[in-house]
Amino acid sequence: MDPKIPEQVTEQATQESSSPLSDADKIRLKRLAKLAKLQQNSSDNLAGTSKNVVSSSSSVSAQSTSSTAATTSQQLQNKGSQEPMNTTSISPKPKRPLKSFEDWQDDVISKVLQITLDKSSAEKSDSQLIYLNSLVAELKEEDPAKTSFKLSQSLLEKALFARLSIDPNQMSDDEETFLAISKLPRTSLFNYLLDCWKRASEIKRNLLTRASKTLDPLVVNERVKVMEALKDLLVNYVGLVIQYPDMFPQVNNSMDSSPQQLVPRLLADINSPEGLPLDFIQELAARVDEEGFEKVFGQALVGLAAQMRSRNILNDYLNPLNGLVTLTEIKSLAAMLPKLRSWNPPDLTAKAFEVASLLGPFCRLSVFPSDEPSISENYFGNIQRSKADVDSLVISLRGAMQGVQKTLFNIFNNIIRSSPSSKEAVLSYFARVIKLNEKRTQMQVDPSQVGTDGFLMNLSSVSLTFAEPIYSKIDRIDIHYFRKSKRIDISQETKIKATQPESDEYYSSVGSEVAPPNFISEIFFITLAMHHYGPLQCYNNYNNFNRDLVELQKQYDRMKAEQPNWAGTPAAAFNEVLLKRCKDQLEKWAVHKIAYDSQLLDPTTLSRSLQFYNLVINWVLRIVDPTGQYPAKQISLPLPPTPPEEFIMLPEFVIEDITEFFSFISRYNPKVILSCSRDELVIFIITFLKSSSYIKNPYLKAKLVEILFYYTMRNENEGGIGMILNTHPIALEHLMSSLMSFYVEVEQTGTHTQFYDKFNIRYNISQIFNSIWNNPIYRDKLKEESRKTDSFVKFANLLMNDATYLLDESLTKLTELRNIQNEMDNTDEWNRKTQQQRQERENLLRSLERQATSYMALGNETVHMLEYMTSEAAEPFLTPQIVDRLAAMLDYNLNSLVGPRCTELKVKNQEKYRFQPRTLLQQLITIYLNLCKSKEFIQAVARDGRSYRKELFSKAANILMKYSLKLDRDVKVLENFVNDVEEVIKKEAAGEEELGEVPDEFLDPLIFEIMEDPVILPGSNISIDRKSITTHLLSDATDPFNRKPLTIDQVIPNTELKERIEAFKREKREKRNG
């Protein structure tokens, strides 16, 4: 019920309104008038329970989602009930009360409010009671015959008003007034009312527990109603003094009397004397409407946020965070939060938003050095700590951040569950964060224009928790979400395989009558976008940081190694400063790395993201599955040639983020993948390698291979997928052909770095081949693919091209390396060079070392692939387009390894550069042996007049025997092969002598050999041998003479020229025989 207003208040407002007033008086009277207009208590309700005096709306029952408030909630449900107390909780033998109900009321009201109507009680030396002289005078006027008065439920309103009206700052000569003022607590009225409420709550609690065991239930019921009425009245007046702090006289220079005075109370534990009891907050919240909420709780929440801005994960962050949790656990308050102006403030940058928005300061708690560098330096500053100490600190920090993220989820969850409008407000808040942080994906990011890593990571964790219940509801994720909702703007995002005009038309063609997406879809796509702009960018930054850290360490090591050279020189002082600066930076970055690791490599966090990305994988596969039933039904490969429109119109980052996430965990914490099924990843990779036309960006497909490579290199207990690749039906059926197809595809990626990119991609492919080669099913698949002559010849040709280029480059770099090493070994000559000259040569040496190592590693794997593939499928390597070049490549490298200039390759620390000449020689000889029975191969080696030498094979055989690299029978086979080659050479020499001088028009314009099957190129109209142009087109699909696109089916047989060549040959043979 509304609080009852004493008549003198109304009279005072009426009298003073007729005389001139100051502005302050007018404001005070307006507020008093507001109080006076409230309805009086209904005469039939002696309980005196008050309605909301803060607003005109009726109060609602306080509710709580907190388990700690369960008891209080049950008590509140009994409030105002006319039914007697449950007698089962009362003593079976109740006693009569020692005091009358009137005396009891007077005692407890006096105790709670610390007031009295008995002057003698107030005058006692130890009494803290305040004598309400004004109320006694009023009561005497109403009943002159009465000489003594007692406090009662009917006088509650008048008594509390009289107490609050006493001016603590008044100077009075009146003894009674002076005594009353001297006893007033020197605190705000809010604190006084709160203390009164606590005393009333304690008395009520004792009535329900202790007194109920000894007193009659009717007596207990009667007394409880008095305490409920008193508590209600106190809560109502709390609302008044918070909203209108100058309605009643306050102590001068007292603590803040504005709503901000709630902040220290909210920061304290709710069970401590300084805290706000949950029951009290619930009762106060039940009596405020939207306007009252803004005034009573709005400023307090802003104050909590302000407190949070100065806190970090090491600095008492729990108090404001727990204060916010306490408020949001009250449903009515949680529903009001999004209505505050600071909830989602407009016109702010991302950085300003996370500081100025209501929940921003709570969500930006971070351990990232980029956000809070002092945390890593203070927490991990002693770099000399043992690994066990560091691990313990990391675990502690991870636990703290996990606790923060769980608490943040509870806050958002409380708000979402409070009302439909609050749910929409939370989704809009997340979308706003996403929109403001779109620039985080740019190549060059201005930190002042984007949110912090911690802010995005925490909100990503919150969205992940919301997403967890939808993992089993994949069929309810709306594939048309981006058409139905503009909450997440993807209009400018690159699509998987659609142009911008196509995308614009697709997303603008949806009708207005389409139903909005469901909450499951909202959460799925918000989580997807939040990860894209949050964790995925953090992973990218972490990669860059690690790269910079490695480079800094190398720089420091070089400076340290060169220290003896410049010690004692004029540059020593300057170099010492640089060395110390470099060391300090290394130590600083080392502790920063630990801080990054504690957050980004947290197994729990990564495992949760892994579960989500497995869901994304299944959802994407479900879209491209022609049946639309995956994962309930296994997908069938290959996919249809034309991808679904819903798939190609998706933003490319959907696929990119999957690849980036799995690439990150495979490199830094591969064991995380053991927490989930790995089948989804394998199926996803093979699906889009097998149907590679579905994805336009070659970088994404290369990432798929990279992930496969990383996980095939791991043991099963480290997350390796070797067992899956060797048992899963889709892998067994499609992996070999998919990898071979992509090996060919990466020859032309369309990027300016394609020439170098292809080697890295093919290295990964070669490693995957190595890991599965022992499985006979895969070897059978290779043979099956080799029967597809055209496609396999392209693969074999590129394999041979790579081996030729990589070995040539690596051996050349080794030669250059040896030259510089020899220079440096000649101390006198080296010292005669200037410092700059030495520096230049040393820089060149380091560059050559990097190049030689890289080329040799790639070359070794390529030769190894040739070795085992020619053992299983030799025929494709013997085609006319390949066999000559393969023979030339083998002969050239054999010459390099055992020929006259082999000593130029003897560099120091050969293993450092992956150079293993004996192993390489063994592999080359194995390839010879795999092909040596073929007539085509023997003839090709015989035709190689540039590098083939019989004595090279003899020397190679001696090395193989000396180091037991081959069996005797293998060496014998090699000798027979060389003899066969020599026999062919003799015959070829006789044939060339027979032909004599060959007309130029009969010679191939590329290799200058007599043509066997001349054809005309349609663009340039030049005649060339079919074998020659076919070989060229395997590597370059253009006319070699005008660079226009060309395919082999476009060439025109030159029958007339072929007949003339045949006639020329016949004539020469006849002349010799005649």
Write a structural description.
The structure is a single chain. This protein is mainly alpha-helical and 1074 residues long. Among the domains are: 815-994, no CATH class; 1000-1071, Herpes Virus-1 (2-Layer Sandwich). 61% of the residues lie in helices and 1% in strands. It is built from 45 helices and five strands. A hairpin with a 6-residue loop joins strand 3 (1014-1016) and strand 4 (1023-1025). Helix 30 packs across helix 31 (698-712) and helix 39 packs across helix 41 (935-943). The chain is elongated. The N and C termini lie far apart (134 Å).
Short summary:
With 1074 residues, the chain is an all-alpha fold.
Strand content range: under 5%
Average pLDDT metric? 85
Sheet with most strands: 3 strands, antiparallel
Total number of helices: 45
Largest sheet: spatial strand order: 4-3-5
Instruction: Give the low-pLDDT segments.
Output: 1-22, 24-28, 36-91
How far apart, in Å, are the first and last alpha carbons? 134 Å
Give Rg in angstroms.
44 Å
Percent in helix: 55-70%
- Total DSSP E strands: 5
**Which structural category fits the helices and strands?**
mainly alpha
Q: Looking at the structure, what is the overall shape?
A: elongated
GO molecular function: ubiquitin-ubiquitin ligase activity
Protein name: RING-type E3 ubiquitin transferase
EC number: 2.3.2.27
GO biological process, one term: ubiquitin-dependent protein catabolic process
